[in-house]
Each structure stands twice: as C-alpha cells, then as structure tokens.
C-alpha cells in the first residue's frame, strides 16, 4: 500500500512503477536493429497467456520511481526511448513523454491500446490483444500494427484489426516465440499472398540480446 503522497504522484504520472530500464537493440517491428533505451513500466490486466514478461503484470511489485530519475538515465544512452510494459497506457504518460521530449529524445511506445492514449509519441506501435481490444484513439494513432500469430485463427484476427486501424499504419505479422517453428512458414506464405503485410521476428532472441 503506497502512502498518500506517493499515490498522488503515481496517479498524476509523476512517478511510475518501473520494472526495468536498459539500453539495447530494438528486436521487433519497423525499427528492428536500431539502438534504443527501453523503459518497462509495471502493471497490466490484458492477460495474454503467452506473455513473456508476466512478472510485469502486478504493478505493486515494482517501485514507484520519479520520472526525473527515469529521464536522467535515459538521456545518458540513446536518442530513442521505447516505453513498454506491462501496459504503459495504464498510467498517465504525458509527464514522462513531456520530459523526455524536453531532453530532445525521440519517444516510442509499444502498447496493446487497451486504454485511452496519453502522452506525446513519435512512433506508436499498436499490438492488439483479443482479451482486451484497443480503444479507437489507439487505432487512429498507430504508426505500426504488430499482430502476434500464435495459431491459424490469429490471421483472421489480424485482418479484423487491420481493418480498424488507420490506413497509414505499417502492418506486421510476428510469430509468437514458442510457436515460431510452426507459425513462421505459415506467415511467410500469408505475406506472399497478402503483400500489404510484413514479417516481424523477435531478432533479439535469435541474437541473444537482452
């Protein structure tokens, strides 16, 4: 249970439940292969059964951290910051993105889009989940739609989500890691037959990059 003063700052977005922060290579989607500083925020109730960071779900396990501290660390390393989770839009992202941008950092988000969009983003990666669909503002803002393919039915879900997303979004299909041997050949065939889509792979896992 947070004390009242800290809870007020968390509610305002002036403190966030920080799970981890690290400088690495972006492994997925449009910016694959580029250096970025990742800020992983705790807290998520979307509940994907194949999530590879389930330890992020319970925000209470991650200490509320002042955004000034987060930004001070980020600006030491990179020109691009990726805010991820958990589900970052659980929280008010405006204070964090405002301060990051004030330090001339490019700010990306990776989100399920399940909550109303807050913050100012240079790149918006939307990855919808069946358990809690995106809000309209997330579909409207998406620069990139990244659909995780766990089974054959997910291709239909991907098309349904693409139809809801703005026409400028770049469309990606990505095999869920535990099913990559089974699903990658199907994704290759699907993209060849439906060339509006691109393939995304978790290249950081192939390269053993954290």
UniProtKB/TrEMBL annotation:
GO molecular function ontology, one term from the record: S-adenosyl-L-methionine binding
Enzyme Commission number(s) of this protein: 4.3.99.3
Domain Radical SAM core: 31-210
Positions contributing to [4Fe-4S] cluster binding: 44, 48, 51
Cofactor note: Binds 1 [4Fe-4S] cluster. The cluster is coordinated with 3 cysteines and an exchangeable S-adenosyl-L-methionine.
Source taxon at top rank: Bacteria
Pathway: Purine metabolism; 7-cyano-7-deazaguanine biosynthesis
Binding site residues for substrate: 25-27, 40, 84, 210
UniProt cross-references to HAMAP family, sorted A to Z: QueE
UniProt similarity note: Belongs to the radical SAM superfamily. 7-carboxy-7-deazaguanine synthase family.
Described purpose of this protein according to its UniProt entry: Catalyzes the complex heterocyclic radical-mediated conversion of 6-carboxy-5,6,7,8-tetrahydropterin (CPH4) to 7-carboxy-7-deazaguanine (CDG), a step common to the biosynthetic pathways of all 7-deazapurine-containing compounds.
Protein name: 7-carboxy-7-deazaguanine synthase
Organism of provenance: Flavobacterium urocaniciphilum
Gene: queE
């Amino acid at each position: 249970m947070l004390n009242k003063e800290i809870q007020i700052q968390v509610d305002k977005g002036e403190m966030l439940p920080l799970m981890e922060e690290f400088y690495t290579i972006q492994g997925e989607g449009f910016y694959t292969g580029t250096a970025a500083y990742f800020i992983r925020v705790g807290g998520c109730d979307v509940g994907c059964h194949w999530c590879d960071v389930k330890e992020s779900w319970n925000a209470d396990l991650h200490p509320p951290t002042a955004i000034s501290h987060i930004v001070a660390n980020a600006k030491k390393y990179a020109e691009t910051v990726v805010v991820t989770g958990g589900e970052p839009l659980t929280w008010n992202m405006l204070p964090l993105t405002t301060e990051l941008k004030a330090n001339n950092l490019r700010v990306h988000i990776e989100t399920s889009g399940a909550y109303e969009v807050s913050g100012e983003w240079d790149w918006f990666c939307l990855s919808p989940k069946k358990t809690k669909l995106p809000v309209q503002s997330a579909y409207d803002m998406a620069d990139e739609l990244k659909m995780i393919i766990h089974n054959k039915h997910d291709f239909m879900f991907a098309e349904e989500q693409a139809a809801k997303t703005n026409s400028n979004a770049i469309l990606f299909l990505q095999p869920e890691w535990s099913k990559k041997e089974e699903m990658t050949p199907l994704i290759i065939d699907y993209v060849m037959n439906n060339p509006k889509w691109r393939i995304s792979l978790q290249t950081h896992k192939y390269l053993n990059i954290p």
